[in-house]
Amino acid sequence: MLYDFIVIGAGASGLFFAARAANLSVLLLERQNRAGRKLLLSGGGKCNVTNRAVGPENYFSRGSEAALLRRWLVPALKAWPAARMLEWLGRHGIRLEEREHGQMFCARGAGDLRDLLLELAARNGAELKLGQSIQALRHIPAAGGMAGGVAGGMGGAAWRFGPPQSGGAGGTAFQDPPARSCFEVISNGRSHFARRLLLACGGPAWPRAGATSLGAALARASGHKLVPASPALTPLSLPPDWPLHGLQGLSLPARLALPGLEAPAFTLPLLFTHQGLSGPACLQISTYLPLAPTVAETGLEIDFLPGQNLAELLDAPGNQRLNLTGLLRRLLPERLGAALVRGAGLEGQAARKLAELPRAARKQAVQAVQAHRCRPLAPAFDQAESSSGGVDLREINPANLESRLAPGLHFSGELIDVCGWLGGYNLHWAWASANLAASVHNKQERP
Hints:
Blueprint: E1 2-8, H1 12-20, E2 26-29, H2 37-41, E3 48-51, E4 59-60, H3 66-79, H4 82-91, E5 96-98, E6 103-106, H5 110-123, E7 127-129, E8 134-140, E9 158-160, E10 182-187, E11 190-199, H6 214-221, E12 226-232, E13 236-237, E14 251-257, E15 266-272, E16 276-278, H7 279-286, H8 295-298, E17 300-303, H9 310-315, H10 324-331, H11 334-343, H12 359-370, E18 372-374, E19 386-391, E20 396-397, E21 402-403, E22 409-411, E23 419-420, H13 425-442
Parallel strand pairs: 1-2, 1-11, 2-7, 11-22
Antiparallel strand pairs: 3-6, 4-23, 5-6, 8-9, 8-10, 10-11, 12-19, 13-16, 14-15, 14-17, 15-16, 17-18, 20-21
Helix pairs in contact: 1-5, 1-13, 3-13, 10-11
């Protein structure tokens, strides 16, 4: 059979594509033995399905400047805004619960949404094959010839993965294809053919949920440039000599920034852990760490009193009879205030009344509390909720998410160099990108 689309990956994006592709024949190939596993585990099992306010400003690209990213995202986000996603979920009976900052979660659990996607995909006639290992794939030019092909060196060439299978040149047997331009995918030793191919394999973050680098390997083999993947939305570990170790469990609002970079600052709850930092503020800023090659020198900057001015409080006439320790107890959790004083080397000054506190000590205190610098260790993928990096935006047509190098090859979701903020933005990108690829081709007549 010649399918309209073969989709590699039955996660959030691949399933949504199949659910939206009402007029297309679709084959989904999934490596794991269960579809949507990461979706089921996300958000504590309730998945942050979208956010009431979704716009280009909520996304980050490692390989493209902000202006290009904003323009590039417009077609997908305009075609599938948050309001449309919410209407679609309501129409299909998915109850939602709203949390802070417009975050929308599945009220009964992510299983409701996963099951809906499977139901709609099956209703559209999509086939799902689980436990699939991709051994090889190739693009076959029109008339089944091996010459010519497409830009990027894909034409007629095999991209091989995993251990060789018996038979055929190089150990992988290709079958006689239909006499027309198509893609051939060999999985579990069997050939499948389609006019178009969608890579919806996701990124390498959260490997315990089944994430791999398969999508990146496939994209690279097809001739695409990939911006190296980095952990995003992840807790951060701090070196052993960090003066604020030992405060695990403590949480408070804080402002986190990366000085000297064109990256946003985030004022959100911050959580101290055994290894270092977590919480929404930390997860958000972690996405931008790859922009800071000199973070070991400049460090991450934390303001533990966002919206306040410690310098003015130290000079306020009504506070002059207090000492530094007493003032900080009014403003911060006691353990944090004490640790900041120790880290700044101000133990000898902490008991003096503020009226007697030297100007240099005041400056040190302000620096310690409102411009605390720390140098995170390199994060790992095992705790990351997402990844940044992926296929370079310049090599993908934003109007339909088709490769500019290999016509008929499409990308969606996390495999593209688009990373959303914490709060439902990454899942919304999975929906919006899959919807765009499906809707463009639904409108086209089948030849």
